[in-house]
């Protein structure tokens, strides 16, 4: 890699207060604001128009010196100069999710109306905690929460709040579940006795944020019980029923069952109807993590895959996954708005209790955050410009493409494929033949790293039953079957060369 050279830096004199104020957005700086933002948009647009691969494959060792040499105490004094510098420390080596051979994680290309929303919300800078900091923004977020709850089918008592992402939504859902389970534990002593006995049941294929949330909530180290899955990597309802009974017999309290509508690795959707019935019979909180699968809420053809989600006590949705929104845009929905009281604290300077009596709306009473971005605006503008059916058809496209990709991999003798996803992932691995078979794990790890280093494509990796596998996550409708085929050929080339070289080395290595 060629390290760029910069002109010798000169010290910029500290700005006088009047000059510094010129960099703030106000009625006298609107032209500067317009030009500066336009310059930034133009830089990104040129990059998007010309990138021919999802990344450059740059390493931390290569990029870190460029970032470390930037002296943040010596300003450049000019936005265009700063953008020039940004080309070298960020834009040149950014990972581009819009590229059709980005096939790694749950990152999507973003809808242009959402980018418009991002530009508006950052400039106005509303804070979604109280009415006197947000006004109409509060009502827009509430309308979107109502719309999402209607799509889920949670009923007229539903409510919710936007969050930073699925992990925060899951954390808050389990907080509410914990507090509901502790509602009858009167007094500190009773609560202290109950907390170590609380348990959470979740799929063995579920998201790690469940375990992380349990730790943050002060539950026991063994509070999360991973329930076995079936051949399709879905939680086994019978095992959930048995685990609830076993916990009760042992004097433990199941505070929540977490069903997953779209596991990160396999895109599997748990049997939500069965889970809802089990939880209702056992009087256990049911949380559905639909961070990935929430796109089915607007699917013209696959909404039925979420049947049963309407009976959940709480639901996580990530619009920044399958609704093609920029990070961050997520929400937690609850069936009964009264449960959100467990996140409510009153501060005299912010949300005094009298505001409730005056029926002044605010969102801070529902949120784990205080200061919070108006992220709902991005989804609002996307729906107003494109509509939900258009978003759903885009999500249908990537699910269809994943089915095609699974078929392609399953018919290729070079690879072994795991269960077919209900959403848009494909988990597979290169499988050497003959004496190189024992090198499968190392070959797949090598292939992923070599592919990333080339910048020609990016794929993910995971472990299945203790073995290393690769993973395609398709969230880009522009990705074609031909793109998938080309990436498979690259993987096979890297992995095959690794196996060949190591087998040859073993054969030529003298014994003893």
TrEMBL record:
Q: Which residues carry this modification: N6-(pyridoxal phosphate)lysine?
A: 321
Q: Which GO terms describe its molecular function?
A: aromatic-L-amino-acid decarboxylase activity; diaminobutyrate decarboxylase activity; pyridoxal phosphate binding
Please give the cofactor(s) recorded in the UniProt entry for this protein.
pyridoxal 5'-phosphate
Q: Where is the signal peptide?
A: none
Q: What is its EC number?
A: 4.1.1.86
What family is this?
Answer: Belongs to the group II decarboxylase family.
Q: What is this protein called?
A: L-2,4-diaminobutyrate decarboxylase
- Tell me which species this is from: Micromonospora parathelypteridis
């Amino acid at each position: 890699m060629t390290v760029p050279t910069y002109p010798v830096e000169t010290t910029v004199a500290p700005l006088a207060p009047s000059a510094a104020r010129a960099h703030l957005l106000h009625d006298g700086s609107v032209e500067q604001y317009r030009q500066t933002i336009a310059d930034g948009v133009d830089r990104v647009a040129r990059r998007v128009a010309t990138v021919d691969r999802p990344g450059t494959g740059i390493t931390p060792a290569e990029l870190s010196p460029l970032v470390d040499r930037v002296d943040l105490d010596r300003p450049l004094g000019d936005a265009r100069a700063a953008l020039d510098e940004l080309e070298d420390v960020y834009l040149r080596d950014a990972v581009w999710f819009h590229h059709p051979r980005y096939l790694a994680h749950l990152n999507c290309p973003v809808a242009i109306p959402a980018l418009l929303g991002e530009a508006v919300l950052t400039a106005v800078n509303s804070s979604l905690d109280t009415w006197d900091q947000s006004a109409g923004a509060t009502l827009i977020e509430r309308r979107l929460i109502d719309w999402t709850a209607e799509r889920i089918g949670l009923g007229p008592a539903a409510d919710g709040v936007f969050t930073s992402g699925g992990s925060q939504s899951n954390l808050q859902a389990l907080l509410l579940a914990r507090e509901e389970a502790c509602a009858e534990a009167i007094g500190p002593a009773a609560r202290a006795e109950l907390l170590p006995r609380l348990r959470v049941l979740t799929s063995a294929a579920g998201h790690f944020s469940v375990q992380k949330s349990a730790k943050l909530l002060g539950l026991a180290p063994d509070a999360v019980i991973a329930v076995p899955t079936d051949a399709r990597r879905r939680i086994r309802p019978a095992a959930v029923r048995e685990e609830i009974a076993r916990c009760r017999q042992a004097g433990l309290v199941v505070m929540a069952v977490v069903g997953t509508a779209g596991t990160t690795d396999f895109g599997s959707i748990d049997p939500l109807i069965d889970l809802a019935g089990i939880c209702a019979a056992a009087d256990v909180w049911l949380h559905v993590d639909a961070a990935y699968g929430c796109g089915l809420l607007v699917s013209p053809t696959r909404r039925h895959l979420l049947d049963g989600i309407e009976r959940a006590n709480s639901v996580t949705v990530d619009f920044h996954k399958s609704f093609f929104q920029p990070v961050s845009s997520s929400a937690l929905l609850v069936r009964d708005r009264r449960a959100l009281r467990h996140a409510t604290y009153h501060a005299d300077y912010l949300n005094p209790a009298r505001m409730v009596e005056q029926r002044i709306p605010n969102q801070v009473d529902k949120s784990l955050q205080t200061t919070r971005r108006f992220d709902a605006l991005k989804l609002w503008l996307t729906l107003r410009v494109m509509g939900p059916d258009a978003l759903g058809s885009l999500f249908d496209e990537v699910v269809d493409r994943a089915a095609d990709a699974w078929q392609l991999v399953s018919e290729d003798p070079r690879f072994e494929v795991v269960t077919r996803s209900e959403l848009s992932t494909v988990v597979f691995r290169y499988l050497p033949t003959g004496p190189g078979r024992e090198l499968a794990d190392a070959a797949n790890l090598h292939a992923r790293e070599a592919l990333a280093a080339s910048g020609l494509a990016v794929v993910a990796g995971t472990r299945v039953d203790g073995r290393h596998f690769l993973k395609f996550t398709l969230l880009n409708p522009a990705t074609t079957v031909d793109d998938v085929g080309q990436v498979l050929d690259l993987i096979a080339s890297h992995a095959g060369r690794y196996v060949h070289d190591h087998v040859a080395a073993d054969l030529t290595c003298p014994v003893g």
